[in-house]
Specification:
Layout lengths: L4 H5 L21 E5 L27 H13 L4 E5 L9 H14 L4 E6 L4 H10 L4 E5 L5 H8 L4 H14 L2 E8 L8 H10 L3 E6 L17 H8 L5 E4 L8 E5 L4 E6 L12 E4 L4 E3 L7 E3 L1 H6 L4 H11 L23 H4 L2
Parallel strand pairs: 1-2, 1-10, 2-3, 3-4, 4-5, 5-6, 6-9
Antiparallel strand pairs: 7-8, 8-9, 10-11, 11-12
Helix pairs in contact: 2-3, 4-6
The chain binds S-adenosylmethionine (SAM) and iron/sulfur cluster.
């Protein structure tokens, strides 16, 4: 990781810069994803090993520090902010951060504050999320079968997630369901999930499994190219490409039979990097400029170095100047090691 401490020692002349973040390939960075914790109350088999070692709590930025970091990014042109994890809603006192960030929605500085959640805590937090200015959320759900749900999440309770979805819809939150497409696990269930999601007014997105972090299983066994899933779905449904965009990497179709939208996130079969507008911040203040690369920048040191944001703004500019063109994920039998060693729960996907 590039340490900012060196530049602090040299006392380089740093100027607070609120200019928009434009990377070396001319892409404006307007979307920040923040992993507020690496911990989770589930252990999805494709995401985590069953016995994970998590960061010591003392290494985490406080919620006040995360708020300051996020606010710096908003000052530099971020318009969409997503809280993720691990499971964002298991971080103690998380609603403090949500409420603070919600002020930027109120002021018009942010277009959207959203989160990606496994849904386990939604019944408790849905109303408060809405009250803080959250309007749309992503809920990850890979199956509608309670038994299979237990199998894939190891520790999850399907009925609790369903209660969470009910509560969120009742609170007025728009939901998008995210399913990782897994060969021999849910590939034949996707049509049923699609009908369920669209029947309840929810969009749905399918995601290819990515080679991130060591897990017990071999991801090659699960990898299902979405080109194949799409071809299978087209035998039953009429899928019409639409230009709908949510600021993320999904490409959408309208499903004529259900009238709903289905998104495909295809990091493996169709690289979507050319239009990348995102960077990812971890709960320790490390900024990853690309989900699929190891290069990162330490923002914790400049954050803590001074009460003014000058060092921090300069460190952000320096990091953005290193944003790579894209990733190059490969899953096959020859590549036994994950492309990046960190788990998805570190950067939140
Ligand atoms: N815990 C929350 C959840 O599950 O929604 C937020 C964090 S989770 C890491 C974010 C998303 O990443 C989830 O939709 C999950 O299914 C997906 N994910 C995790 N590991 C993945 C992998 N190796 N490949 C593709 N998607 C993955
Ligand atoms: Fe937890 Fe989300 Fe990873 Fe599942 S996908 S283990 S819910 S972080």
């Amino acid at each position: 990781m590039n340490s900012f401490a060196g530049s602090l020692d040299r006392a380089a002349p740093l100027v607070a810069d609120k200019a928009p973040m434009i990377d070396p390939f001319g892409r404006a960075v307007t979307y920040l994803r923040v992993s507020v914790t690496d911990r989770c109350d589930f252990r999805c088999t494709y995401c985590m090993a069953e016995h994970m070692s998590f960061l010591p709590k003392k290494d985490l930025l406080t919620l006040e520090e995360l708020n300051r970091l996020c606010s710096a990014f908003i000052a530099k042109g971020v318009r969409k902010l997503r809280l993720t994890g691990g499971e964002p809603l298991v971080r103690k006192n998380i609603m403090f951060l949500v409420r603070e960030l919600g002020r930027h929605v109120q002021s018009g500085a942010l277009d959207e504050l959203t989160l990606t959640t496994n849904g386990s805590q939604l019944a408790r937090y849905a109303d408060e999320l809405y009250d803080c200015g959250v309007r749309r959320i992503n809920v990850s759900l890979d199956t509608l079968d309670p038994q299979k749900f237990k199998e894939i999440t190891r520790w999850g309770d399907f009925h609790k997630v369903m209660e969470g979805i009910d509560a969120a819809q009742k609170a007025g939150l728009k939901i998008k369901l995210n399913a990782v497409a897994l060969k021999d696990f849910n590939e034949h269930e996707i049509p049923e999930m699609l009908r369920f999601a669209h029947g309840r007014g929810m969009d749905m997105t399918v995601i290819e499994t990515m080679p991130m972090g060591e897990i017990e299983e071999d991801r090659t066994d699960w990898y299902l190219p979405l080109s194949k899933l799409r071809a299978d779905l087209e035998e039953r449904f009429t899928l019409v490409d639409i230009p709908y965009k949510t600021g993320g990497p999904a490409r959408y179709v309208e499903v004529k039979e259900t009238g709903g939208r289905l998104g495909f996130i295809t990091p493996m079969t169709h690289n979507f990097c050319e239009s990348c507008n995102r960077v990812r911040l971890t709960c320790t203040g490390t900024l990853y400029m690309c989900l699929g690369q190891n290069d990162a920048a330490d923002l914790c040191t400049p954050l803590r170095a001074s009460e003014s944001d000058d060092y921090l703004m300069a460190a952000i500019d320096e990091a953005i100047s290193r944003k790579p063109k894209g990733h190059d994920f490969i899953i096959d039998r020859k590549h036994k090691k994950p492309a990046v060693a960190r788990h998805m729960s570190v950067t939140g996907g």
